[in-house]
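Supplementary Methods, section 5.1.

A reviewer requested that the exact input to the structure prediction be made available. We therefore reproduce it here, unchanged from the version used in the analyses.
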Amino acid sequence: MITRNFFLFLSQNKFVKTKATKWGPKLGAKSVIAGETIDEAMKTVRKLNERGLTCTVDHLGEFVYNREEAIESAEYCIRTLDAIAETGVDCNLSLKLTQLGLDVDRNLCRDNMMRILETAEKHGNFVRIDMEDYSHLDATLELLHELRRRFDNVGTAIQAYLYRADKDLRELKGTNIRLIKGAYKESPEVAYQKQAEVDRNYFNIIKTHLLNGSYAAIATHDHQIIDQVKAFAKENGISKDQFEFQMLYGFRSELQNEIAKEGYKMRVYVPFGEDWYGYFMRRLAERPQNVTFAIKGLLSK
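The structure derived from this sequence is encoded token-by-token as follows.
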């Protein structure tokens, strides 16, 4: 049986990544990636907006290792924010700190983030820092706390498979947080390994953040958890304005439409760009059902 660990291994394999580029369309990448350019991403977002869905866009890429690439990535984020404002679409920006030079120079990364947040602030927009693997967790949270001393239009994500998720979340009270289960392979020393344990902790941190009066972006395709959140919010008098649901572009579109029609904010995470490989492999790793994208694509050729 194809395992989660197999796809996580592939997501980090440079040789396979190089060979996979030409196979992207066959593997179904086009089903979950909204094109390669800002213009293509904006067209996709507009179509989603027309269905009553709000969005966040993410220019794919990570693990930049020189200053020039980090600055270029920051400029691309700024151009994306400008395009969102110019087109008038309902959309935020998501990004990774490793794209902006976190592994090169922390101060460079901070300066890049400051410029991006100033642009977002000018446009009245919000920026989400995606959470990466465990080795970048402390640096990400430290930089977030520093940025929030100046900006209130920035948040991050907390991963439920980590033992420390509840502690980190409580220290972020009042922050707009995306709550996710987690997509990287982490050691048993720092993360739950059983799905039932992850699911249990996921719902617990959702309840914690909502009861703290903080805004929660609940990112899941699990309809059972979605139903539990709806019931919990109703039982505790939590307004629909205090949370939103989030799903990935290309996944469970019918459920996305249903949630929006019920009056909940439904935000679609829309990735775009040429560097699609690592993202796509992690999506295949998360749920066995996602492998059907690859199988259908290959059989159709």
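Confidence is low (pLDDT under 50) at residues 6-11, 15-20, 293-301. These observations are discussed further in the main text.
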